[in-house]
Amino acid sequence: xxxxxxxxxxxxxxxxxxxxxxxxxxxxxxxxxxxxxxxxxxxxxxxxxxxxxxxxxxxxxxxxxxxxxxxxxxxxxxxxxxxxxxxxxxxxxxxxxxxxxx
Length: 102
Description:
Elements: H1 9-22, H2 32-49, H3 54-58, H4 65-73, H5 77-101
Helix pairs in contact: 1-2, 1-5, 2-5
């Protein structure tokens, strides 16, 4: 996310989608379904890729010139596409599962 070398933007996007779909409508709603879904997203993503941290996933720091050079030379954008696809797929799976349970 914006070269911060923090959490993968694809995972963050999945979290936002889960929040929109499962978040509280008002203060009296439970947050548990939402929190459980987000933890499940993180667990499944980490199970597949071992981390949710951008610099760990890409083995470079996009906040540096060296890291951006490596990103370009090694065409790491392809890894980002894989991360984005998987995060979106996991998010959709979780929403399907939650909707089936009710």
